[in-house]
RNA sequence: GGGGCCGUAGCUCAAUUGGAUAGAGUUCCGGACUGUCGAUCCGGUGGUUGCGGGUUCGAAUCCCGUCGGCCUCGCCA
């Protein structure tokens, strides 16, 4: 390497690259000091960049200047070095490192940046509270774990793009500044300076734009796109999140499902190095609710819900009897190995169940040769035997039952099932179980008004054979909708859309949206439908959730570079924040509630 | 909007359940050490117990409020 080969930091290799075959080469590396070990004489430094670690050696006898400079190094200093690749001496090879066979004997070093005191340690074992990590996200993102997560996410996106491109999908962008549609989630609003008093909304999804693209003849569309919903956050919900959004024309359910199954196989092979079935199991919504109590069943373990109505209505236990008499259900699950729970722990489970609206929790313990429960006196021997058979209860198991309205029974048992599976370690690790849930109801009753509201969205097509029910019994109409579930998480959902203007009008009117209102809110869609629309349908998959599951993390914040806290704040930038009067005046806005934070100066 | 958990040294935690000078590991600073790889060894710095109020002879500990983080119900077409 010549003297005029530029600054030292113009590296020749990255830190995960050098191997035994490079021994003897003169190289330049640059990166962060991951760790340094000063033995008084020789100094070792693990140099880190995005790609890995390389051990640097500073020898006082051969290169005393560099050694002297290296004495002042500390964690996270940014340095560039030039040196020669050498074998590590016999017995000092590090098997745990991709570059563990070699080291670089440093001839020349430049210290590019010396950080001040660090906010926390980056080393892998060191757990750091999440608020600190988010406040110093620029620092936290240096962790190899975070870099790996974001790399997996990048690879997922690249695989999606090439997979869909090969199948003729076009990536087309849709607007972020768009029209507010008060249905569904709460919109984020953006004031329109050029139209004082009026607002754009950030899209909750590109739903209508992609449908219009189908009507415009763009057959197959996709987009990896940000969506915005101003609702409360969860471990798997951020106010802005990313979807793989796609739509196809002249297709039915099967064609959409086929594309997604193919994509999931590809992703599983490339990212997880596993084979998943060519066809994923399919459940109807009704079956999922019946067997698992929810529409996103985790198929990695059993513990399915059983109905014990026949026992309940004939036993002497009043709670059971009353539940059945008032049109409710009595159902339960059997927790393998759950009999070890103490009375106190069972009381805590009751509290847990009450959190979902259940009035109580009745349990039966599998003792040797019999069932034990404080309630056994209310049941005949035959009933107890039937109970044992229904749940296939063995000694050491625990039956948990809920007696209530069907929706509460389902919700509570689903929560208990997931919670118990985790508690008793019944979930096989590194297992990925996909399934489809189909035949959703088109509408569900609004919790307050009891009026039909769309379960998916108002553009979802009813099943053709159910079209007669639209007027007579709308809540029984099934939709041409499908959700894809992975390990109990809803990865995404979609539907075949309505492509006939009249049917769309009819659905709007069932939802209580009159012709005038429909025209003002969705006029462009109705107009487009009038101009010739092909049958079409699509799906949207949550990219954040997918990356979360594929990296084995338990929060989407671990796969988002700059996520928001549960209160929707960014601890790093301190957004949101107040703005100054001039900005407000330009927008014609006045603040009714004083801002908590002053505008940044 | 409701419920729960949490907040102590730069970081992660402890403090015998209301008791005397709030401790430990790690980081950091200084020293020793020529083959380590979470280096090791010796020494040292480091505290508004989130903030405000209250109860008490005495509060990290109990009570009220508040700020912040996490989980969750509602919400999320």
Describe this structure in words.
- This protein has helices at residues 64-70, 130-135, 137-140, 144-166, 207-215, 253-272, 285-292, 309-314, 318-325, 343-354, 381-391, 406-423, 469-472, 501-510, 515-530, 543-551, 581-587, and strands at 26-38, 43-49, 52-58, 78-87, 102-113, 170-171, 189-191, 199-201, 220-228, 240-249, 282-284, 306-307, 329-335, 362-367, 370-372, 398-404, 434-438, 443-445, 452-454, 481-486, 489-496, 536-542.
- The strands form 5 sheets. Strands 6-9-10-22-21-20-17-11 form an 8-stranded mixed β-sheet, sandwiched between helices. The chain has a 5-stranded mixed barrel with strand order 1-2-3-5-4. A 5-stranded antiparallel β-sheet has the order 12-13-16-14-15.
- It is built from 17 helices and 22 strands.
- It is of the alpha+beta class and 601 residues long.
- Among the domains are: 20-113, Beta Barrel (OB fold (Dihydrolipoamide Acetyltransferase, E2P)); 301-427, 2-Layer Sandwich (Gyrase A, domain 2).
- It starts with 25 loop residues before the first strand and ends in a 14-residue tail after the last helix.
- The protein binds one RNA strand of 77 nucleotides through strand 1, strand 2, strand 3 and helix 2.
Name the CATH superfamily assignment of the domain at 301-427: GAD-like domain
Describe the main β-sheet briefly: 8 strands, mixed
CATH architecture of the domain at 301-427: 2-Layer Sandwich
CATH fold title of the domain at 301-427: Gyrase A, domain 2
Instruction: Estimate the strand proportion.
Output: 15-25%
Number of strands: 22
Question: Share of helix among residues?
Answer: 25-40%
Q: According to CATH, what is the class of the domain at 301-427?
A: Alpha Beta
Average pLDDT number = 93
- Quaternary state of this entry equals single chain
Q: What is the CA-based Rg, rounded?
A: 30 Å
* Net shape: globular
- Termini distance? 49 Å
Q: How are the strands of the largest sheet arranged?
A: 6-9-10-22-21-20-17-11
Structural class: alpha+beta
